[in-house]
Amino acid sequence: MDPLRIILVLIGAVIIAVIAFLGIRKRNTANNSIQPSERTEPTLSFENEDHELELSEDLEENHSEIVMLSVTARDGGSFKGKELIEAAEDAGLQYGAWNIFHYHIHDEDGQTKPVFSMANITEPGFFDISKITSFSTKGVTLFMQLPGPLAAMDAFDEMLSAGNTMAERLDGVLIGEQHKELTPDDIQHLKERILNFNISVH
Question: Which pTM does this prediction carry?
Answer without folding.
Answer: 0.72
